[in-house]
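Let's practice the habit of predicting before peeking. Look at the sequence and jot down your guess about where helices and strands might fall. Then scroll down.
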Amino acid sequence: MNYTKYDLGQRSSGEIVQVTLAGSAANVRLMDSANFQNYRRGRKHKYYGGHATKSPVKLKIPRS
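Done guessing? Here is the structure:
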C-alpha cells in the first residue's frame, strides 16, 4: 500500500495537527502506533479524520 507516514512523537490532548494536501484529495488518518500497525496489517483499527477534499486539514489530538 502506498502511504505517507509522519511520527508526531508525544503530543498533548487538544493539540491541533494541520496537514496540507499536495493534490485535490487524500485520506488523512490520525492514529496511535498500535492502530497504525493494525492498519498496515489490514486489521481493525481506529482513527480520526478520513477522506479530505479541502486543505489544510486540521485534526484535534483526542488524548495524550
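How did you do? The first strand starts at residue 16 and ends at 19.
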